[in-house]
Amino acid sequence: MVKRANRKPSSTQVSRGAGSVRIIAGRWRGRKLVVQDAQGLRPTTDRVKETVFNWLAPYLPGARCLDVFAGSGGLGFEALSRGAGWVHFCEQHPPAAQQLRTNLNQLGAENAHIDTGDALAILANPPKDGPYDIVFVDPPFHQGLLNDTLAALEANHWLAPDACIYVEAESDLGEFLVPAYWQCHREKRAGQVHYRLYFREQDDVRENE
């Protein structure tokens, strides 16, 4: 995922110039998509994506997905390829957002929307078209945005009652605040990345407690 002034530094150095990400499964399997170069560009690796989407496989068909810090769009495009019904991309960097539009057009994907703007500003208001079943959260490393992002998702009604929330963060971050009723389903580390999948408990479960 892309990251710059409010995007995370790369865990590895990235060569200058346009790069690419590969869709690893689904109807666009093997397709490579151009990624705009930007400071701190760090696409989620194929290894991590394979694991994450194995976790999400039962929940993807027809799901409404939100890719909060979209960058390269690698997670959102992978979700579309594997059968998600809709993906909402949020990307602040205009050239990166334009590249997302170009890539969507090249794939012929019409079941997606791109918001060009600051993610926290977007999340400060409730979604216009209803909550999301799966949310990808990969905020800039070392910028202190994770707690505010997770809190906004919960407080401003971006999450379906039984939503899945994928969180990718730097391994040295330590503990962060997770909203009540989110349960960590799976977690793994890969190099400098610690990634987790949370399940949000449905409201009727809470009411019975």
Q: What this model shows, in words?
A:
The chain has 209 residues and is α/β, with parallel strands linked by helices. The protein has a single domain (19-207), classed as Rossmann fold (3-Layer(aba) Sandwich), CATH 3.40.50.150. The chain is built from 6 helices and 9 strands. The longest helix is centred in the middle third of the chain and has 14 residues, at 94-107. The chain starts with 18 loop residues before the first strand and ends with a helix.
Strand-helix topology:
Blueprint: E1 19-22, E2 32-35, H1 46-56, E3 64-67, H2 74-81, E4 86-91, H3 94-107, E5 112-116, H4 119-123, E6 132-137, H5 146-155, E7 159-170, E8 182-190, E9 193-200, H6 203-207
Parallel strand pairs: 3-4, 3-6, 4-5, 6-7
Antiparallel strand pairs: 1-2, 7-9, 8-9
CATH architecture level-2 label: 3-Layer(aba) Sandwich
CATH superfamily: Vaccinia Virus protein VP39
Specify Rg, calculated over alpha carbons.
Answer: 16 Å
Low-pLDDT runs of 5+ residues are: 1-17, 204-209
Give the CATH level 1 class.
Alpha Beta
